[in-house]
Design a protein that fits this description.
With about 450 residues, the chain is of the alpha/beta class. The chain folds into three domains: about 5-125, N-utilizing Substance Protein B Homolog, Chain A; about 160-215, Alpha-Beta Plaits (2-Layer Sandwich); about 220-430, Rossmann fold (3-Layer(aba) Sandwich), CATH 3.40.50. It has helices at about 5-20, 25-35, 40-55, 55-65, 70-80, 85-95, 105-110, 125-130, 135-145, 145-155, 170-180, 205-210, 220-225, 245-255, 265-280, 295-300, 330-350, 370-380, 390-395, 415, 435-440, and strands spanning about 160-165, 185, 195, 215, 235-240, 260-265, 285-290, 305-310, 355-365, 385-390, 410, 420-430. Strands 5, 6, 7, 8, 9, 10, 11 and 12 form an eight-stranded mixed beta sheet that branches. Strands 2-3-1-4 form a four-stranded antiparallel beta sheet, with helices on one face. α3 (about 40-55) crosses α5 and α13 (about 220-225) crosses α14. The chain is globular and about 75 Å long. The N and C termini lie far apart (about 90 Å).
């Protein structure tokens, strides 16, 4: 494909995304699936343009002085500003021929025919940092004057993180398998089971992957499994298991001993988990489809778990490196609704843990409403739980190289090189406190 045709393909994908609630990666996959003639190099270029456009979303609005900027103008602005092409190259490419963009209009030329550095001379901070309006003040609350550095790290494309399945392999064997297909892997700084590569690759085509020797999983997600500190023989519940990435990590840490209940409300996720368990050699997982967070299964298994992991639904602000389109779907109403859902899930799932057991509440969000606010509200309503220092738990897992934000676990791309994650360990007291009324002396 010509570069001009590639630009038009990116414009078509962005345009479809703007009218469709599905994530960009799924829309792109469908776009390429319907156009088998598009080669691997073309797909890579088009994907790069699409994600670059999402990473320059608010800046595009700023230079065009409008909120309802179309896909074409967004792609053009992002391409020039990120050096995908120059203004002159863009102008020459836009001929209006079949499969390529129409010629630039006079108004488009007037804006684009300028030095890109001049475009943002007076742009506000939230525009330059590509932060949606709904998240700007909450992120300021968390990061303060470190916000620019934190957000700049999120604008950089994420590496590919891999968790070695210790039930079947080790890091040396996995790195050797990756080397055979031209991928150089390095040991992760935090996760004992993790290696990292800096290239995209169809990992499902590698024999070692098909044999279950490794899974693609962000390092932060691997650390959250360690935060659960599961022991072989225990009963563990992964309450919002999804397709089961953390379930598999927990099973490996438990050496396939004990029982893990993997729960979710979407059946196809449970079906996918069954396939992943078989490939990974995991046999201590029981899949449980729930109708909702208050499913009768929860009441039936009250007090039976040693550990309950709640990887709660959230805004996904910590994954913006990988999903830059997600930030432009976020509203204040969404944040409030996530907080409500998270609190409901925490209220219900906490019933599963036994006295002395732990609830690990986690999100891939960096917003306080979804993290500390949710935890603090839960603790206000549940004096039978107490907050445990995350550092104490992880040091007990021999993870001693992590900078912590006590008493919670906070991971960010800038400080840790992984996605943004939050974790809180809530331990149920061995003996529940009596109600105040029960402790009052009777009247004479």
């Amino acid at each position: 494909m010509q570069d001009a045709a590639r630009l038009q393909a990116a414009i078509d994908i962005i345009h479809t995304w703007m009218d469709n609630p599905r994530p960009a990666d799924r829309l792109m996959a469908a776009y390429f699936r319907d156009r088998r003639y598009i080669g691997g190099g073309d797909k890579k270029f088009i994907s790069h343009v699409v994600y670059t456009t999402f990473r320059h979303w608010r800046r595009a609005e700023y230079i065009w002085k409008a909120k309802d900027v179309g896909a074409r103008k967004r792609v053009f602005a992002a391409s020039i500003f990120s050096d995908i092409c120059t203004y002159l190259e863009l102008k020459e490419a836009c001929t209006g021929e079949r499969y390529v963009p129409n010629a630039l209009s006079a108004s488009e030329e007037n804006v684009l025919d300028d030095i890109p550095e001049n475009w943002f001379a007076d742009a506000p901070e939230d525009v330059m940092l590509e932060i949606p309006v709904a998240a700007y003040k909450p992120l300021q609350e968390v990061f303060g004057d470190q916000l620019p550095k934190q957000m700049e790290a999120i604008l950089i494309e994420a590496p590919v993180d891999i968790r070695v399945n210790t039930l079947k392999s080790d890091k040396d064997a996995v790195k050797a398998a990756l080397k055979e297909v031209g991928l150089d892997a390095e040991d992760m700084k935090m996760s004992p089971e993790g290696v990292r590569v800096h290239q995209r690759f169809p990992f499902h085509t590698i024999d070692a992957y098909r044999e279950g020797q490794f899974e693609v999983q962000d390092e932060g997600s691997q650390i959250l499994a360690h935060l659960c500190a599961p022991k072989p023989g225990q009963t563990v519940v992964d309450f919002c298991a999804g397709a089961g990435g953390k379930t598999l990590a927990l099973a490996a840490l438990m050496q396939n001993k004990g029982t893990i209940y993997a729960c979710d409300i979407i059946e196809r996720r449970m079906e996918e988990l069954a396939k992943r368990c078989k490939r990974s050699g995991v046999h201590n997982v029981r899949r449980q489809l729930l109708s909702d967070e208050n499913d009768k299964w929860v009441k039936k298994h009250k007090g039976k778990a040693d550990v309950v992991l709640i990887d709660a639904p959230c805004s996904g602000t910590g994954t913006w490196r990988r999903n830059p389109d997600a930030r432009w779907r976020l509203s204040k109403a969404d944040i409030a609704e996530y907080h409500r859902i998270q609190l409901n899930i925490l209220e219900s799932a906490s019933r599963l843990v036994n006295a002395g057991g732990k609830v690990v509440y986690a999100t891939c969000s960096m917003l306080p409403q979804e993290n500390t606010h949710t935890v603090q509200k839960f603790l206000e309503n549940h004096p039978e739980f107490e907050l445990v220092q995350a550092q104490d738990i992880l040091e007990g897992q021999n993870l001693i190289n992590l900078p912590y934000a006590q008493p919670y676990l906070r991971l960010t791309p800038l400080e840790h090189g992984c996605d943004g994650f939050f974790g809180a360990v809530l331990q149920k007291k061995a003996q529940e406190p009596k109600l105040e009324a029960e402790n009052k002396p009777e009247k004479a």
